[in-house]
Amino acid sequence: MIAVYSTALGPALGGTRFYPYASEQDALEDVLNLSRGMAYKAALAGLDLGGGKAVIIGDPAQLKTEALLRAYGRFVQSLNGRYYTACDVGTNSDDMDHIARECSYVTGRTVAHGGAGDSSVLTAYGVFQGMRAAAERVWGAPTLHGRTVGVAGVGKVGRHLVRHLVEDGATVVVTDVDQAAVAAVQAEHVDVRSVADADALVASGLDVYAPCALGGALTDEVVGQLSAKIVCGAANNQLAHEGIEKQLQDRGVLYAPDYMVNAGGLIQVADELEGFSFERARQRAEKIFDTTARVFDLAEADGVPPAVAADRLAERRMTEVGRLRGIWLG
Predict the structure, then answer these.
(1) Keyword Nucleotide-binding, does the record have it (predicted)?
(2) Is the backbone of residue 216 left (phi > 0), alpha (psi -120 to 50) or beta?
(3) Domain, as residue range, for 255
(4) 9-49 pLDDT per residue, tens
(5) Integer Cα distance of 114 and 111 in angstroms
(6) Which pTM was predicted?
(7) Number of domains the chain is built from
(8) Catalytic residue check, 41
(9) What's 225's domain CATH number?
(10) Is residue 19 part of a domain?
(11) Nearest partner of 239 among 310, 162, 136, 173, judged by Cα
(12) pLDDT band of 318, cuts 50, 70, 90
């Protein structure tokens, strides 16, 4: 399934998620939610791109083949550039190279083919910049030094985020359903502590909670137990339902909207459309700090949660720039 939420700012860009959904309905709901998030993410990041997403239903370890990926590439090609694909859960840069054999609208390719490679590098860097901006708002300094940060999910993005936090002087506690991922992080950073699961992580004494696995991590129960003053992580669609953002605000927890801080990966793969430069993409991702601070300012001025303020900024840009399409150029 491919969902195109908006092309107001440009062609829709978003990754392909290869995942064993329980039903087609679950896959449909996910792809629609994710495509919306990508549109808002691109708008807030200042990119001339719309939002889209794709899902392939199944276990990639069993079903992923060259033929399937190339068939999917022809499907993407049939949209004639309205949608550009990239990596997501269950897909990687090598897969994008296969897709590109049948399709012109592919980003996130391997470095050998002129691509950006692993987009999790700048995704984590952007989350770290957003976390620094949140720390400045809460504690007066843009650093996590001396703070305890809990990272739920230490796969591709979470692993890089842990490195930034450790280098900044934070105390880091991690958890992951994949114990091999936890072991790999602890082998690299011997002072990083682990707990059994996300519930145990949330219940522990944290200054910052960073959900970096799949979506829906912020439920009523989690918010009720949370001791952290900041929530800032890489996972998409963290709010389990509408209204969670208000609960966080009422409990004095500063929430950095997920699509705002995790835009670094999108920035990285989007840079391929100009001929990839890692340094240029890194500088753009660094501006997530400024965007986060701006959203917090607007939230305070309007008396709304940061999630609402971020939506307003994204919607304003989509509307204002989207109007330019009404000017006929002949």
Answers:
(1) no
(2) left
(3) 120-262
(4) 999 999 999 999 999 999 999 999 999 999 999 999 999 99
(5) 5
(6) 0.92
(7) 2
(8) no
(9) 3.40.50.720
(10) yes
(11) 310
(12) very high
